[in-house]
Design a protein that fits this description.
Bound molecules: fe (ii) ion
Mean pLDDT: 90
Distance between the termini: 76 Å
CATH superfamily: Ferritin, core subunit, four-helix bundle
Number of domains: 1
Shape: globular
Largest sheet: none
Strand content: under 5%
CATH class: Mainly Alpha
CATH topology: Ferritin
Number of helices: 6
Radius of gyration: 23 Å
Number of strands: 0
Order of helices and strands: HHHHHH
Length: about 200
C-alpha cells in the first residue's frame, strides 16, 4: 500500500519539524534569554549604523542635518561601549546577532542616497529614513531597559536608559530640523517646480 506508506512518511516528517519548532520556542524560556537576544540585536544594529551614518552625513545637503548625523555617529560609538558594559554585567562576551530589520532600514536608506533630485526633498527623505531607524532603536532600548529593571540589573538599566534618552533626543532633533527648515524648503521647491512646469 504505497499511498499509506507515503502518508505515514509525511506524518513522520511533520512530526520532526514540529519537534524542531517546539525546541526553538522552548529555548526562549527565560526573560534573561530574551534580554540577551535583544541586546545582541541592538549590538549588531549599532555596528551597522556606525557604517551607515557617515554615508548619511555625506549625502545630506543641509549643514545642520550633516551636523546631526555626525553628532549621532559619536553618540553611537558610546552606545556600542554601553552595550559592552551591559554584557559585562551579565558576564557575557559582547556578541551581535544579525539585525535583519536594521539591515532593511539601511538598505532602504541607501536607495534614497542613490536618487537624484532637489536637495531639500532628498534631505526630507533622508530624515524619514533616519527617523525610522531611531524609532526602531527606541523600541529596542525601551524593552531591554525594562527587562534589565525586572531582572534586577540596575546598573545596566541605567546605561540603557542613557542610550534611550540619546536616541529620543536625536529623533526630536530630526523633527525640529524637518519642521523648521527642511520641510518648508521642500514645500518651496515643490511650488517652484509647479510654477516652472506651468501648473
Ligand atoms: Fe544608538
Amino acid at each position: 500500500m504505497p499511498a499509506l506508506k507515503n502518508a505515514l512518511h509525511q506524518i513522520q516528517i511533520d512530526y520532526k519539524t514540529l519537534n524542531k519548532n517546539e525546541k526553538r520556542i522552548m529555548k526562549l524560556d527565560t526573560l534573561q534569554k530574551l534580554y540577551t537576544n535583544e541586546l545582541r540585536d541592538l549590538y549588531n544594529a549599532e555596528h551597522q549604523l556606525l557604517k551607515a551614518l557617515p554615508k548619511m552625513a555625506k549625502a545630506a545637503s543641509s549643514e545642520e542635518l550633516k551636523g546631526a548625523f555626525e553628532k549621532h555617529l559619536e553618540q553611537t560609538k558610546s552606545h556600542v561601549k554601553r552595550l559592552e558594559q551591559v554584557f559585562e554585567e551579565l558576564d557575557e562576551k559582547p556578541k551581535g546577532r544579525t539585525c535583519r530589520a536594521m539591515k532593511g532600514l539601511i538598505e532602504e536608506g541607501s536607495e534614497i542616497l542613490r536618487e537624484d533630485g532637489e536637495e531639500s526633498i532628498l534631505d526630507a527623505s533622508i530624515i524619514v529614513a533616519a527617523q525610522k531607524v531611531e524609532h526602531y532603536e527606541i523600541a529596542g532600548y525601551g524593552s531591554v531597559r525594562t527587562f534589565a529593571h525586572l531582572l534586577g540589573q540596575n546598573k545596566a538599566a541605567e546605561l540603557l536608559q542613557t542610550t534611550l534618552n540619546e536616541e529620543s533626543e536625536t529623533n526630536e532633533l530630526l523633527n525640529r530640523l524637518a519642521e523648521s527648515t527642511i520641510n518648508p524648503e521642500a514645500v518651496r521647491e515643490t511650488e517652484l517646480a509647479g510654477a516652472s512646469s506651468g501648473r
